[in-house]
Amino acid sequence: MLLFVAYSCITSMYNTAFTPPNNQIIYVFDWVVEGVFYVDIILSFFQSYRDEDTMLVVWEFNRTYKHYMSTWFVIDILAVFPWALFFSQGVMLKLVRLARIPRLMKILDVSKFKKVL
Question: What proportions of the chain, in percent to the nearest 5, are helix, strand and coil?
């Protein structure tokens, strides 16, 4: 997931600065990456978390659902929303694509990053 987020951030900044490439393979890969992000949003509803008060791991769907909705859901939806359907290929669309960058902050959470290492 970290590689997909890094790819998305790099290509978003590149496409903002320059004209996106017209290569069909890159276009298909970009849609695959978008699909991975959609699946990530769905799976995040089921992801357990540690309660800050009791320090116990919460597995109950109702609580994990509410926790995700109150934390990263809005940022995740803004990051994967198909803005190209509503904006033309102008400067505004390029700037809206940069909304994906907060996903990198989510992935690079220090406590999670230590576990990966």
Answer: 70, 5, 25
